[in-house]
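1st attempt posting a full record on here, be nice pls
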Amino acid sequence: MRKALYLGLCLLVFSTAIGQTSYQTHTLYIYSFAKFVQWPEESRVGDFEIAVLGDSPILPELDKLAQKKKIGDRNIRIVRLTSIKELKKSHILFLPAAQSSMLAETIQKIGDQSTLIVTEQAGLAAKGSDFNFLVKEGKLVFEINQNSLSKHKLKAANELTRLAIII
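the predicted structure (as tokens):
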């Protein structure tokens, strides 16, 4: 219960702060996704990898996060991909809005691999991303596609599903 309250308060504070749609807020959410999504046992070893397809203002924010935080006892490693073909095995793949047209190819490349696909354009959760950022009434919110999560052998904790728009 304390974890849920802590997560909810952190996300509320950050989502109502100045610069509500800044990539600092996106980064906080992605960190929370990393902590509150359950990966299969084989995905729980080594560094926790977050990949970003293309250029995005989120990259410096993720780099700052990786220098300061860990996922459990695991270091966070940030990887910039110039092409989806470069994707090997990441825990999270962030598709910036400019790369939204790559979603279908990304889904095909990932298959049923345990990679959390995070997007930021309206309608992409319904098209197969796991988590999708939206701005509603000036606040950053996120959608969860439960079917896509299941396909990737991932499970979102109740703390996340209570805060999300479920697709």
